[in-house]
Amino acid sequence: MNPFTYSRATDGNAALSELAAANGQAKLLGGGTNLIDLMKMGVEQPKKLIDINRLAPLAKIEELPGGGLRLGALSRNSDVAEHPLVRERYPVLSQALLAGASPQLRNMATTGGNLLQRTRCYYFYDPAFPACNKRQPGSGCGALEGFNRIHAILGQSDQCIATHPSDMCVALAALEAVVRVQGPKGEREIPFGEFHTLPGEHLENDTVLGKDELITAVDLPAAPWVKHSHYLKVRDRASYTFALVSVAAVLEIDGGTIKQARIALGGVAHKPWRAKEAEQKLAGSRADEAAFRAAADAALAGAKGYKYNSFKIELARRAIVRALGTLAGTPRSA
Ligand code: SF4
């Protein structure tokens, strides 16, 4: 691990000042469950860590006027998952969180940190592999012709086929959450679908968050219909592993007809993947298996697999049908 300095911020403004003064060389420390691993591997090499764990206002989970919920950036994943209002109003979020990591990690991991998780691509994590455009811009992509079983099937580029690892973020994408950010120019709100990026020119950045900005909270919408939601995670073993494919599904059904739908996929793209074509197919359809299959086909229409991960295309198709069927309470034939 490279040498670094450590400081403990006493308030948000102090943290922002320290961040700005470090000129992109500092990282904020919350739960540290991903950052410290990456520092040990030499993938992240910040010159300074600014510990923000004492910023008590950022740890709150509070109800918003009108029925939404604000998750402070330092709220722990386990606290969010078990919060009565999250369980009641946003079950997909609680289910996604409980499907992630282990109880010990969920006790440490924060809402803000969850949004900033880096990809679990093997080549990115191990500097012994020289080719990784995300770790070393311009060095190539070891996964393209390498072992790419966990990699992307949607939205990838020939520069990077990594996937986003979070479960929580898949649920937040389906819920159309809003990320609140504080920086030198003040506060701004970022719609969740715009927070993470696809693999373009600046692969070293996974999000639009500035190096001098701090996530303060994530707002969940006041939309009673999103209560009817479900998270399905398909993985190699029953716990403590990342999704091969996951589905966050939200449906509003009236008299057997779908009024509106939201579907987000995990494990398939560089960001939580919103399946808007599938949502459009579902709106106005009967809530039955034929509609769910048509939606799944629409969601995967542009999918492309590689040597070891083409199985994900059919897996994702079936996972969508299963998640929607579970949510609608309809039996599934295959
Ligand atoms: Fe690096 Fe992305 Fe290629 Fe993985 S998929 S080796 S993260 S460039």
Task: Summarize the helices and strands and which ones pair or pack.
Layout: E1 5-8, H1 12-21, E2 26-29, H2 35-41, E3 48-51, E4 61-63, E5 69-72, H3 77-82, H4 84-89, H5 91-98, H6 103-108, H7 111-115, H8 122-125, H9 168-174, E6 178-183, E7 186-191, H10 192-195, E8 214-220, E9 229-234, E10 245-254, E11 257-266, E12 273-274, H11 276-282, H12 289-299, H13 311-328
Parallel strand pairs: 1-3, 2-3
Antiparallel strand pairs: 4-5, 5-8, 6-7, 6-8, 9-10, 10-11, 11-12
Helix pairs in contact: 5-9, 11-12, 12-13
The chain binds iron/sulfur cluster.
Features:
334 residues, alpha+beta, Uridine Diphospho-n-acetylenolpyruvylglucosamine Reductase, domain 2, Enolase-like, domain 1, five-stranded antiparallel β-sheet, four-stranded antiparallel β-sheet, globular, binds iron/sulfur cluster
Question: Could you provide a short overview of the structure?
Answer:
The chain has helices at 12-21, 35-41, 77-82, 84-89, 91-98, 103-108, 111-115, 122-125, 168-174, 192-195, 276-282, 289-299, 311-328; strands at 5-8, 26-29, 48-51, 61-63, 69-72, 178-183, 186-191, 214-220, 229-234, 245-254, 257-266, 273-274. With 334 residues, the chain is α+β, with helices and mostly antiparallel strands.
